[in-house]
Amino acid sequence: MSDFPTQAKVVVIGAGIVGNCVVGHLAELGWTDMVLIDKGPLPNPGGSTGHASNFIFPVDHNKEMALLGEQSANQYRDLGMSVDSGGIEVARTDERMDELNRRMTSAKAWGIEAHLLTPAQVKELVPFVNDEVIKGGFYCPTVSVVDSLETGTVMRNKALDKNALQVFANTEVLDVETSEANEHNGRRTVTAVVTDKGRIEAEHVVIASGVWSNKVANMADTYIPLVPAVHQMADVGPIDVLAETNNEIGYPIVRDMDTFCYERQSSGSMEVGSYGHRAILHHPDEIPSNEEAALSPTEMPFTQDDFDPQMETAIELMDMLGDAEIKYAINGLLSLTPDTMPCLGEVPDVENLWSAAAVWVKEGPGMGQVVAEWMTYGYPRVIDAHGADIARFYDDERSDEHIWSRADEHFIKTYGIVHPSEQWEGRRNLVTSPYFSRQEDLGAEFFQARSWERPQWYASNADLVERYDIPGRDNEWDARWWSPITVGEHLNLRENCGVVDLSAFQVYELTGPGAVEFAEYLAVNKVDKAIGSSTYTPWLNQDGGFHSDLTMMRLGEDHVRVVTGVFDGGRDEFWVRKHMPVDGSVKFTNSTMNVTTLGVWGPNAPTVLGQLTDFDLSHEGSPYGSVRDVEIATTDGPLACKLFRISYVGDSGWEIYTDWNNGPQLWDAVMEAGRDLGIRPTGGGVYGSSGRVEKGYRLMGAELESEYNPVEAGLARPKVKAADFIGKEAYLAARDKGPDAKMCTFIVEDQTSSSGVKRFMQGGNEPILTTEGERIIDSHGRGSRVTTASPGPSVGKHLLMGYLPPELAVIGNDFQVMYMNELYPIKVGAVEGSVFDPEDSRLKG
Amino acid sequence: MRILCCVKRVPAPGAKINVTEDGQQVETAHLGFTTSPHEECAVEEAVQLTEAQGGEVTVLTVGPPEAEEQLRYAASVGCQNIVLVPTDGTPLDPQRTATIITETVQSLESDGGEFDLILFGNESADSGGFQVGVRVAHALGRPIVNGIKGIDIEADQVIARREVDAGFEVYHLPRPAICGVKEGINLPRYPTMKGRLASKKVELESVDTDADAGGQLMVRLHRPQETAKETAILGDSEDAAGAIVDLLEELGVMS
Prior knowledge:
Strand content of chain A: 25-35%
Largest sheet of chain B: 9 strands, mixed
Structural class of chain B: alpha/beta
Radius of gyration of chain A: 28 Å
CATH superfamily of the domain at 7-47 and 150-225 and 339-395 in chain A: FAD/NAD(P)-binding domain
CATH architecture of the domain at 7-47 and 150-225 and 339-395 in chain A: 3-Layer(bba) Sandwich
Number of helices of chain B: 6
CATH topology of the domain at 7-47 and 150-225 and 339-395 in chain A: FAD/NAD(P)-binding domain
Shape of chain B: globular
Number of strands of chain A: 40
Number of domains of chain B: 1
Distance between the termini of chain B: 59 Å
Order of helices and strands of chain B: EEEHEHEHEHEEEEHEH
Radius of gyration of chain B: 21 Å
Shape of chain A: globular
Oligomer: heterodimer
Number of helices of chain A: 22
Largest sheet of chain A: 9 strands, mixed
CATH class of the domain at 7-47 and 150-225 and 339-395 in chain A: Alpha Beta
Strand content of chain B: 25-35%
CATH class of chain B: Alpha Beta
Distance between the termini of chain A: 77 Å
């Protein structure tokens, strides 16, 4: 093939909906010299796009998935490639009806039209539904059916029309070549794609290879954590009532949620799809080639036994299906990831190698845009995509064992009712802290944060429930994954002292002659301060939105320590490595597994620690924000520690850092010293929620996202440092302009539901509405919603955090929050500050 | 009326079928399996005949335990009884298969009465030996006609039609009779969902056998050489006329 290129700016591997949308969007953003290849023929190369059921239900509880789904649906609409068929999720159980009310709430949050229907109303829209087996329905008129293959062609043609693209079908990728690891940051750089038609040197390579994505990633000696999994689908017909519509889709799609099944008209037939069978996972090597496949590689032979139970329930809902012939049935392949989210962005260990994988048809165009913007601007502009960022994974999550276990567990939850705090059953205890056995002895209830186990509360503190007379929660959903003990731990910390295991902190050391200068370049706030000082600071992206929010400590002349949260460790390490200076003046070390951290807070914290050290713990000797080397007395002798005076719970105290292996001695010493001072082990329910929210402390990924800037989050300091940093220009502009939204804390005035039960918002994007029940949208189109919800035990109220347009963000203003499709009155309790101890007097105590 | 259909589990068509390195097996990793197409038509014909005239259909296969899938499929389109003679999956020679079927027929008939009609597919889709039906008929001493594309059953005879160039040959076979059915005799139905569910409740009869191997031995399987097909576009509209004439002359169909 003499016309096969030997060089290109971008090679995109995979011409399904994702690869086509990536090249289309890249072309719109001005990229040229692109090559799109696929091992199959066009327009249907045989991947998952070719057999997708092609419908979009726009409501999702997850913000990224909902907004990118809507974005995608709109792109399909704009191209004339979609029909709004409407869709109904039907409920067979009371629990599902509650879930439909939760769906109504999310629909309100994202501004999507939705209606709750009675069984009779469902039957009006879909006359062949058996309304006797359902209790109701959730109807979305904007559920759409799309033509993903044709959309792919149109998007590809956009790039072709601009002479920005060459396309090669029937071209198999044999290898993806990279450079040796770069000396300055340890990353490799992608260099070329080798195919059966020739080798192309490329600056950027995008893996949009669907179920084969990890196989392609493996060629570059890296990993995209996804597994091909079966979704069974049978096409049954002909059915007269459908044929009479003379339409591809004439009736709303029905999702029979409690049987994990859907029925979607396809001309005169009905497609019955299932997520109710066992998880059937495949290794990519088990997928046949185009030649070896009877239909297409991702339409694998149907395993009828797995589908039989679905047929019984499908017939129960639509009797007419029973007499329809099964004309076509497949084990269709799709991609699953360990945490159900897609894998987007630059692969952490290979520069300019991009993942656009684990994306379904319903999100394809939106996610294609995300990746194209990421490549163009260094960050996606259309939405904060931290949940889909491929850099989020830790090593423990990048193994077949992990992915298969997680996919096996969550496949059945595709249509499941998943609680916002729901924990995984499998693959637990991957990383435990040095205190783990002690915490187990204390009856710790562990919540997993990515691969790390963290105590959420301790059963050993059950007596606090009685001491503080803490009521339970009457509603089972609100009480699930929650314990009144956590409120007891909170009140005890405020009264006495609490010890919090913070070992899951991700700790990085920047050392070398360029370390401080580089640290300055990452951080909004000044890091180049006296040794022994710290900086709590945002890291911004190029557009001035939040990339992260963390603490940096100046530990030496050429040494800055970075401490970040466990949910952001992967993304932050990637960010550091990506931006490290090429001159080799900075060395990066991940010391997470060498350092353990214990937080000690509460009015008795100084007294507790005072028993273990002679160091001056007063605000003169250990001022707020300082990092001091001290010796802590233990039964095994003195322990070298760093005392960091800081608080994320609003009470005075310290984070104590010591060597990982010395953790147990530290724990024992602190607990013993506090024995008569009311010390209690205290879980994440206080540290991450109630203590934090009472103080209005923001959390990356909740209050802080790339769509908001520090001015809006209330984290802008009075002055801007002279040194340059990422996002500075945008930050200065944001400061000049002023906030277009303000972070507020809300007090829920009355939690009583219409049925007289006290309800507790969970912080799952519940919409914040006007007193008239209208959505509140700021000048950037961002809707007000709950970013975190938590009890505020010390203020005796349930608290919410969320943004409001500045003119509405006034203490005392009344609003409403929707929860489970009911409205509750709320009032602004704090703007930028906190509802508890707004003067920070306790921190100064 | 009692009709027996003999079917075989074969790889589903449409996929490139590879053989194992030792040439003794078909590579099954990516394969779906189905019933030989001629036999699928035999099953459909049997169901149609009993639907019209009453009676029941028994389906028999000699194959691996997985061949239950093909039996259930037959049950899902209306057959009442399913019988599996399980093997270890090693392909059997036609002689041995015929012996097993003959013995099984005799056993089934001694329990339930004679089959008025036994249907085979004209030949199996995988090995295409054209032998089993004839051997069974010979062993049972019953008449057989192959290549059948039409069947009527009368009180004492089976009328079978075989397609030939000029029309049909019509055979009158005394009952009990045997036919080798050819694809095209009917259009087999797909199972309905209710049919499939009902088929799960049909009891599977399993019959063991110890028939000796026949004389035909498989040395090894070969994939035939693939003939590469190329599509050449001769031109558009009237521009193509000259090239088409050249081609027709080359093919010798124009003088």
